[in-house]
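Curious: why this fold?
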Amino acid sequence: MESFNMKQRLITSGIGLLILFVVCVFFDTAVLNTAIALISLLAVYELLSATGCFKSRAVAISALLFTAIIPFLPMQWAMRYIVPICYIYVAALFIALLRFHEKLHIEQIAMSFLFCLVIPFSLTTVVYIRDRHGMWLGIFYVLMALGGAWLSDTGAYFAGRAFGKHKLAPYISPKKTVEGAVGGVIFAEAAMLLLAWLYSLAADALGHPIVVNYAAILIVTPVLSVFSIVGDLSASVIKRQYKVKDYGSIMPGHGGIMDRFDSVLMVAPLIFMASRWFPLAHL
């Protein structure tokens, strides 16, 4: 059974990498915005379904509309229009609460607002990275964001299986261990450096050389790994509290979109900030 699950995970990961490659090819177009919008919509849907916030159609519609809009707002527009957009969304939520107050509770309204604020804005930092740095440097930072989340998780998984003894968060995620977390950081350090080097070689071969700051990657990667774990455990504690095993089944072997992107939600904004104040590479 375990070998079958591993096979599913590998097949799903292969398909995911192929989709990532296609998105990178069309990185400088609306394909990226559309991909982020779809991921955000699926993640919001999974979270609100798991927490019972989709009992009201008005809440569901307003949540998905708000989520779908954010990735298509250019960065300069977002800074200008985010207050009125959030106001309209909050007003819609409270109108739904007034209309369906016998079945709808304020906790559901609060969670709807939280999830629809955190998820699309966190993931849309990928679009902002593209808008700020262009295609080739932008793809580099996106790979650093995904790598910081997923490579840490991969390293932690195998290190935990090999050396894990001390539970990291027994109630929230029983399989995670302190040894796994440390192994994840070490693996991520090496893998991120390798990923950056390989990308710089590819970019140079295609006539778009970039200069990688390897020292900065060494410094930033442990921070990314820690917040990757925070994102993973945060999503896990919601599942525990609502007695949900996985957020979905759209990604066989992994679960739902939230099961795969929970750590990215924490790491992508960090990479966005690092790209401005602590650059990992430059043209």
